[in-house]
Amino acid sequence: MRVIILGCGRTGAYLARMLAAEGHQVAVVDKNSAAFARLGSEFPGELVIGTGIDEDVLREAGIEQAEAFVAVTDWDNTNVMAAQVAKDIFTVPRVICRIYDPLLEEIYHALGLETLCPTLLGAIRIKEILEG
Amino acid sequence: MYIIVVGGGKVGYYLTKSLLEEGHEVLVIEKDPQQYAMLTDELEANALQGDGCEASVMADAGLGRADVVVAVTGDDEDNLVVCQIAKHKFNVPRAIARINNPKNENLFRKLGIDVTVSSTELILSQIERFIPAQSLVHLLTLRNVGVSFVELEIPPNSPALGRPLRELGIPDDSIFPLVIRGGKEAIIPYGDTVLEPGDQVIAVTSKGSEEMLRRILRG
User: Fold this and answer.
1) Rounded CA gap, A126 and B138, in Å?
2) Domains plus CATH for chain B?
3) pTM above 0.90, yes or no
4) Is A123 on the interface with B (CB under 8 A)?
5) Which residue of chain A comes nearest to B78, CA vs CA?
6) A2-130 has which fold?
7) Which of A115, B98, B142, B144 is in the most buried spot, having the most CB atoms within 10 Å?
8) Which residues of B touch A (CB under 8 A)?
9) Spans in chain A with pLDDT lower than 70
């Protein structure tokens, strides 16, 4: 599977390494080149420097051939905009968007984005653990 | 009207002030505490501190009863999200986004934001107007319908001199609603109007016909 990961923070880098290790073709986009250090020197995927809401940057990352796009920058709104660009403009078949703000996540989920809210997932899990 | 302005930088501040002077109810939302302190000194209760992109802050601001939301932060993605939430979650009738990167104008329209203001483009076009070498100046562009209002000045050696407008071969998709003569006289031209050197012609035209108009009027 050809996957583009936007945002090379802890989540993005970890996911990129896992997918690459399983043989997927991965391109990682981040506006800060220093972030790519998280991928380690052996990372086989493609690195693209630039903002993920720029169509030209996404094209460079190969979005026209991508089967999946994952938006995991540290800024919800960047993820929301990039995910919509991937889904509505480049018609990437699978687009996943991380949103920290639970209310925002609810709104964009209702609007048809495939969203994931780590805040909510974390809180729910912690509550489960507490309640045994 | 109740107008919510998101982003209290220079644009947001002056916009809020002038809307208040016109008698509107206005609330400006600013995230940065220092910037907010400056705003509240002057605008008092018309400023609210909070992240205007957070849905809960929007609810506190009374987005549900707002007539217009204007997003003028320096980040295009924030302006997009503010407008989308205003439209889809709070059913605000009108959401206007400022665009910082002109490249995003097209993108915003594809993503359903119908009214955008590109500050960079506006500044560019304003500067264009004052550069004398500019032979065709864009006054207003209605992108959705592909129509521009442009201004052309008739030079002393214009090929259009001495002949009525109807004989100039003006493209079918272009009309001249106004000619300004000598900088002060407004003429509504007809087919038999004859242009003079120094006339400022205001034209409504399509993108594709701009070059032809330039050739007809300026040579």
Assistant:
1) 59
2) 2-118 (3.40.50.720), 131-218 (3.30.70.1450)
3) no
4) no
5) A77
6) Rossmann fold (3.40.50)
7) B98
8) 53-56, 75-78, 80-81, 84-85, 88-89, 101, 103-104, 107, 110-111
9) none
